[in-house]
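PROTEIN DATA CARD
Card holder: Chemotaxis protein CheA
Chain length: 765
Origin: Pseudomonas inefficax
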Amino acid sequence: MTPEQMRDASLLELFSLEAEAQTQVLSAGLMALERNPTQADQLEACMRAAHSLKGAARIVGVDAGVSVAHVMEDCLVAAQEGRLRLSAEHIDALLQGTDLLMRIATPGDTGAQATLPVFLAQMASLLDPGAAAKPLAPPAVPALPETPVQIAQDEPVPLPAEPLEPELDLAPRRKAGKRTGEGTERVLRVTADRLNSLLDLSSKSLVETQRLKPYLATLQRLKRMHGQGMQALDGLRMQLEDSGQSSEVLEALAQTQRLLAETQQILQQQAADLDEFGWQASQRAQLLYDTALACRMRPFADVLTGQSRMVRDLGRSLGKPVRLLVEGDKTQVDRDVLEKLEAPLTHLLRNAVDHGIELPERRLLAGKAEEGIIRLRASHQAGMLSLELIDDGAGIDLERLRSSIVERALSPADTVARMSEEELLTFLFLPGFSLRDKVTEVSGRGVGLDAVQHMIRELRGSIELTQLAGQGCRFHLQVPLTLSVVRSLVVEVGGEAYAFPLAHIERTLEVGADEIVQIEGRQHFWHEGRHIGLVAASQLLNRPAGQTQESSLRVVVIREREQLYGVAVERLVGERVLVVMPLDPRLGKVQDISSGALLDDGSVVLIVDVEDLLRSVEKLLSTGSLERIERGSSGARGAARQRILVVDDSLTVRELQRKLLGNRGYDVAVAVDGMDGWNALRGEDFDLLITDIDMPRMDGIELVTLVRRDQRLQSLPVMVVSYKDREEDRRRGLDAGADYYLAKASFHDDALLDAVVELIGGAQG
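Structure generated from the sequence above:
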């Protein structure tokens, strides 16, 4: 919230902000007091938070807030003075009061008034068990005004402790109840858009400073050439003196040397000044960028707000005492990443309490402590945020998991019996998979670990599950520290730069031409005892193949779960830390590309969307369109074969035509309907289109009409193959622009092949 917005805000809005911050202090403090009721610092912090809320509620005229905060403060003061020892019942009631205060402060929440008398009566009985339980009379305070009270323009306003989205804190959060003074940083509010713009500008300035390097290199080269010229003139002067030239010639030569000497001094000075300026500019630009990036970074603790309380409350509701221990809560992470981590972490924590931690009696029988422990560790590892969530529960019943896999018909029993533990655990990440037989409020609804995995992948991260029977489970998550920058391997494909995020790269290799083998019509190579499929980046990214006579391939090995693919590129440029620049929204989703960036020299590099790229590989494999990489020429494609696109919504017809034409030497691609075919025609070159008429989304007549209207495609030969053999259907197809009409009723191998030869000739290559 900006200062202008705060001046215009109502007191009720500011009270809501303060309540959000102070209830967080109360929740954390009360949970600490639950384990040790006599901690003086926690008692003091909770008492001050309740006192502050009571005063704030009185100022804005919220009588219910005054009553709740007042009775909570009385309870905490009694504990401070030793007149009361906080029990589990006291902690439960105080936590309920904390929730009630937040509801009272939330605009539009009308349910708090109904629970207020019950809460006050409960607190009264806990404070004075001998007295009759009755609601406390609220203090005499002014009634709540019907319209929000506006703050005067010159009235000092306390700064709220938590920002309203989409604004961001630019300094560490102050502890509630303490005023800003010496030794504390002042907090400002800046909109997320402005901060993103600042980061974008600082990254561009960092790139721009790198462009000084070529100018400095040119000056240094000129200085060397100038020195060589001076030496040549010295030699010429000595020759002229020996040959007895006139004094006028020698004087002119001396004058030239003096002028060149002066220019040499200027050149040296300018080169030195530019070198100094370039160094200073790059240092300041780097500092500016680092500072702008640091403004987006927040401690990992920010995502944990309320998680400890959630674990505690969920455990109590299930009859399981559970505690969450956090390590590395000060680890710095981009705020955007933190926001996207909250949902998957909440799901994993609830899963650990419900599925992992056993009931107290079972834990005691297993020799464990009655209270379950869940550990959450955060740390930096190789430019990534590494998270470990470990519970000390029973682990996963592998026999029950095997039975569930067989019952759901996900795999045959004999196959499941041979699976390793790692293979079995991967089934838990399938959509809708659950080991819980009945639906409860916590689990069994089919929204499981697949949702967590999807959210982590959206962050360009990974998740891994391991377990030890009887001792608990361990989830290991790795996500980028920031979405603003990405560590990448820059490669060259078709003369252009592309970047593969390092998080998706298994390794890079040089593969000799003699190491490439053909298996079931696909190219592979052996590495560490397994076959890795080989594809050309030039085909995936629709770039011309590079022409080189080198006998080995540069290969980037990318991983998707257990599947490895080798992507052949022309050149490995090197590892770079790139500032992500989103593509213009008007472009929509660009196939196989996620975003862009600038290299040090100011040139553009496209960042590859690896998951999208892998989907493209699967599509090429399923349609038989994957092109061979010629062994004698790195990245070079083989002799061009005539390409045919078959568009038909019938899988049987589609595959029949593909095999028939493929066996005759044609390069065949397939599309499942008219829309899919139109997209293929716009992105690739074909020598012939064969299409059905009746198809979903776009029929064959519409497809042919679009082809004939397109300037690039209007000369493409088109054959219509349809079940309809009526004259009017034949006329519709030919009128739309088809060159040939073939009825499926009279369709046979020779008829199709003869028609293809008639239109484009026999297969080449």
